[in-house]
Write a structure and sequence with these properties.
By secondary structure, the chain is an alpha/beta fold. The chain is about 50% helix and about 10% strand.
Length: about 650
């Protein structure tokens, strides 16, 4: 990955634009280093016999009011002008990164207040802010340096906010949080390395802007003060005699333009070469985050001494433009040691959100509430954040849907696994690395020691998925949550991953929660199946009885829509008619009623509770007895005909 990144940067500088920018910038930086050494004598030596002379062979740009050579002074001033511009850029970039990363570093609500302040500040022109802060910090070099740095910070902070928001939602960041990585380490190790290129590009362009801004303040008499001088101060001095000697103003002005152009062209060349440009930033809208009313009757979960996870009436809400949106409403379940439970349902039914809520990975402005949420006997709703991170980081493992986004692309696989051991088991780097190699070997990755030193893009899809399982095994997990672990994998690799999950379960008595769209995989892999629809569980039954004893019309429709070896290939595939309801507008009664052939007025007016029968199965349907009979209508459509 390092070689690929270096190749992109080298390619950026090999283009005509890149060569031009590199030559200009190198010339400016070289002058900043050598000019004071070579020409400081001529620049500082007064000559009263040559006061205010025009250009000549001895003085190409003329002399100033003390007879000093103007061209030599312009060359010598390169160092101070460039150094001040770079210092102001560093102040602005550092402040901008800290402000832009506030949502990650501070969380909510402090992060939202910082974001709001940045959005207000970025609405003002940068030069106006620089003038304002120059007055606040005082006239002089230090005041101008702070003023320009502070003026630059809001724009850079807004860019950082956008980039951080794009990375903070990735699975590998969620995995790091689940592993208990602290906020500062999360930012420096997992977020910033993945947004470094656009930040460097914009910092390079910002340096050119800071150089122009500093020259402007010095020109107005608010920047560098005598006896020191930079290009802006020389431009102001030369302007008073521009009619007698135009070169006195034109030469420092040209130096400002060329140096500013060098920084900006360099940034443009890099942006063009690596194919990255700063995103367009638009202020967003923040709304309240009330969860809203309970939309489903609570379901009590009986006590179980062997329970690993107990969830009762779990709800997740987000603020919406017309009020709270509650995509998860009243989920209740229990998982025991060594048990494999599958969750199935259409996209948007709440399967993955249930897993994220259990793992405490729902970010603000989302709100998670539960009457009971216990993991290994620990109440996750009342425990302190540090205790929750330690418990979840060592005893809960998650395998995300796309392992390519679950791993940090800027870190080696071994380092990402070792980080878990360093954070929670107190291992040093050497022992943690050895443990990571051992875990990769345990999940059957060939050449584990060599593979640990590789980056995620060097792994195949199946190997990345096995490595993700290996990361979960870095601790001693009691619960493993696998969210669509076989998505986009071929049948052979899919079978290997499922076999590995079962081996992990059997070896250490680990409870496995398998989330999948593939009802066939769940039926073959799991002991129990939870069917979710519209943010709640509508049926809970043994997997062995799924095909023969399903009692909810939605479950039967899912089964009917799955083709098998007896499916007539001459007919169109069966589909469930209609679409799931909008979470912002749940219907009054059963959410499946508009798509169900058994629905009546009671179904449309009253939502059925999730009730247990005498065989410890649960179903939420007013017509469960009818729907479970052989020959009952199934809500599927084949070629436009309902069956």
């Amino acid at each position: 990955m390092e070689s690929r990144s270096a190749a992109r940067w080298a390619g950026a500088l090999r283009s005509p634009l890149g060569v031009t920018a590199a030559v200009l910038l190198a010339a400016v930086l070289l002058l900043a280093v050598v000019a004071p050494v070579l020409w400081s004598g001529a620049a500082d030596a007064p000559d009263t016999t040559r006061i205010l002379q025009g250009p000549s062979a001895a003085h190409w740009a003329g002399t100033d009011a003390l007879g000093r050579d103007i061209l030599s002074r312009v060359l010598v001033a390169t160092r101070l002008s460039v150094v001040l511009a770079l210092l102001a850029t560093a102040i602005g970039v550092l402040a901008g990164i800290l402000l832009g990363s506030a949502p990650v570093l501070l969380g909510s609500p402090a992060g939202r207040w910082v974001t709001a302040a940045v959005n207000i500040a970025v609405a003002f022109p940068g030069l106006l802010l620089a003038l304002f802060f120059a007055v606040v910090f005082g006239v002089g070099t230090s005041g101008a340096l702070l003023a320009i740095g502070v003026a630059v910070a809001p724009g850079f902070a807004r860019l950082t906010q956008t980039l951080v928001a794009g990375v903070a939602g990735r699975d590998f960041v969620a995995a790091a949080r689940l592993a208990g990585v602290g906020r500062v380490r999360l930012l420096t190790r997992h977020v910033l390395p993945n947004i470094a290129e656009p930040l460097v590009i914009n910092a390079t362009m910002t340096a050119g802007s800071c150089l122009l801004a500093f020259a402007g303040l010095s020109f107005l008499g608010m920047g560098v003060q005598a006896p020191a001088y930079d290009w802006g101060r020389m431009l102001g001095d030369g302007l008073s005699g521009i009619y007698a000697n135009p070169a006195a103003a034109l030469v420092p002005g040209a130096a400002v333009v060329v140096a500013g152009l060098a920084f900006n062209l360099c940034g443009e060349a890099i942006a063009k070469g690596v194919g990255m440009r700063a995103p367009v930033v638009r202020p967003g809208r923040d709304v309240g985050a009330d969860l809203g009313p309970d939309l489903a009757p609570p379901v009590a979960v009986p006590a179980d001494e062997d329970a690993v996870l107990v969830v009762e009436n779990l709800r997740v809400g987000f603020p919406g433009p017309d009020g709270p949106v509650t995509p998860l409403r009243g989920v209740s379940l229990t998982m025991r040691r060594g048990e494999t439970v599958g969750i199935v349902g259409e996209s948007g039914s709440g399967k993955s959100l249930t897993a994220l809520a259990i793992a405490r990975l729902v970010d603000d402005p989302g709100r998670v509430h539960a009457d009971r949420l216990e993991f290994l006997g620990e109440d996750l709703t009342t425990a302190r954040s540090r205790e929750v991170r330690r418990l979840l980081g060592t005893s809960l493992a998650m395998v995300f849907q796309d392992p390519m986004t679950s791993f940090n692309p800027a870190m080696r696989i071994g380092r990402q696994l070792a980080e878990v051991a360093e954070q929670h088991q107190g291992m040093d780097r050497r022992r943690a690395w050895a443990h990571a190699v051992d875990r990769l070997r345990a999940v059957r990755i060939p050449g584990a020691a060599r593979r640990a030193a590789q980056y995620p893009h060097e792994f195949s899809g199946g190997m990345r998925q096995r490595a993700m399982i290996g990361m979960g095994l870095m601790g001693s997990p009691a619960l493993l949550i696998a969210d669509e672990p076989t998505t986009a994998l071929d049948a052979t690799v899919q079978r290997q991953v499922l076999a590995l999950l079962d081996a992990v379960r059997a070896a250490d008595d680990v409870a496995v929660l398998l989330i999948s769209h593939d009802i066939g995989v769940v039926r073959e892999t799991c002991a129990r199946v939870l069917v979710m629809y519209a943010g709640r569980i509508v049926e809970d039954l043994p997997a062995a009885e799924l095909r023969t004893s399903a009692r909810h019309p939605y479950t039967r429709a899912l089964l009917a829509a799955v083709p098998d070896m007896t499916t007539d290939r001459e007919r169109p595939l069966a589909v469930i008619p209609g679409r799931p309801p909008d979470p912002a507008r749940w219907p009054a009664g059963c959410a499946f009623a508009p798509r169900c052939g058994l629905a009546d007025d009671r179904c449309r007016d009253v939502e059925p509770p999730l009730l247990s029968d005498d065989r410890s199965r649960r179903v939420a349907c007013w017509h469960a007895d009818v729907a479970g009979r052989p020959g009952a209508p199934v809500a599927v459509r084949i070629g436009g005909v309902h069956e």
